[in-house]
Amino acid sequence: MGKAFTVSDFGKRLRKLRKSRGYSQESFALQVELDRTYVGGIERGERNPGLKVILKIAEALEVPPQDLFDRGEQTVRADET
């Protein structure tokens, strides 16, 4: 079994996805209707967002919520085998 996914891992994933979509931290915060400092706290692993915030983030990034919890490790789904 692998290492547990942490709040810091979530923040790193959020930052990577946000940047890949061309959002600045400020423009992304406006898109998800959150304070920029709160988004920064999430990205630094200092804030632990609730489910409603996670769903807003996923919607803004146009990804399924589970993609926010991916460390980039290759996983094979049962339907891909």
UniProtKB/TrEMBL annotation:
Pfam families: HTH_3
Ranges of residues in domain HTH cro/C1-type: 14-68
This protein's UniProt keywords: DNA-binding
Highest taxon of the lineage: Bacteria
InterPro entries given in the database record: Cro/C1-type_HTH (IPR001387), Lambda_DNA-bd_dom_sf (IPR010982), TransReg_Diox_bact_type (IPR050807)
DNA-binding recorded as keyword: yes
SUPFAM superfamilies hit by this protein: lambda repressor-like DNA-binding domains
KW DNA-binding (keyword) present: yes
Protein name: Helix-turn-helix transcriptional regulator
Organism: Paracoccus saliphilus
